[in-house]
Records
---
Amino acid sequence: QVQLVESGGDLVQPGGSLRLSCAASGFSLAGYAIGWFRQAPGKEREGVSCVSSNGYSIHYLDSVKGRFTISRDNAKNTVYLQMNSLKPEDTAVYYCAAQFGSWALRNCAVTATVYDYWGQGTQVTVSS
């Protein structure tokens, strides 16, 4: 059974840092493009970052550029989202998603419709 599990969400003060993890079970993440998305209360889900299967294609939402870093460790079957200089507007449930295929080898997208598999999400709250 293909399963993605996010972890690392927490309550953090503005300016703080968190590292989110997206772990796969039942399959190898190595052949998948991975996206991170978030959804705040009353707002639509938005793409935050993504990384291709080969790790060479990476994209970020403009508002997180320079603060968030996506990385993958295929040996640990995990993708990470390092989030620094967190702001209250980063508060949301964060989801990871996976897409397999030849496109995913060299490409990724911060568009939700691209992805077939989704995790259940982890809550990130940035507040003083």
---
Amino acid sequence: QVQLVESGGGLVQAGDSLRLSCEAIGRTFSRYNMGWFRRASGKEPEYERDFVAVTTSGGTTYYADSVKGRFTISRDNAKKTLYLQMDSLKPEDTAVYYCAASTEPYAPTVWRQYDYWGQGTQVTVSS
């Protein structure tokens, strides 16, 4: 089991950068595939979240087309921390961002494939 705590959200202007962090509390962080998801305000149903990026336990990364080239996912297994570097932010990136851990044997890109979730951190990008 693992607990996840996100940080680093905030209010920025379009074109700015932010780095989100997700600290894992547990002993087996390196074995999980780790992903970032987001949910925009008003999106229904509330339990659905949009895929942003994933890094596998082996270090392979995948991105949603909407963030490819602007966002970078990375992990530091020694620090048990997941990161999301977000550059060239756009107003449409405004959302609550969640990190999640999956025990699936491949790179999951759908929210229901993840077992553990953080509480989320708000990112707001003004135009």
---
Amino acid sequence: QVQLVESGGGLVQAGGSLRLSCAASGRTFSSYTMGWFRQAPGKEREFVTAISFSGGSTYYADSVKGRFTISRDNAKNTVYLQMNSLKPEDTAVYYCAADRSSLAFAIVKVHRGDGYDYWGQGTQVTVSS
């Protein structure tokens, strides 16, 4: 069982930056692929990015590529999402998620529409124009 708690959301102007954090419980954090998803009002949840067990590999949705960076610190059981050049369309509730699959299979799950194994409660990000 993994419990995930996100923090760092807030209100920012377009073009600004925010860094989200997700703290995980448990001693097996490095055994999970970690990901970020988001859900805007009236829209379905969408994949944002994911990172491999060690942090050596990452994968991004096209909509955030070049603007967002995912990283993890396994010693601190924490995954981060650095968001730069924010746009109003980035406004959403951002969710941290953990999956026991490798990054490659976790990506397959995303494309199949399957969810990850564990989810946080979400943190609101609002980008004003």
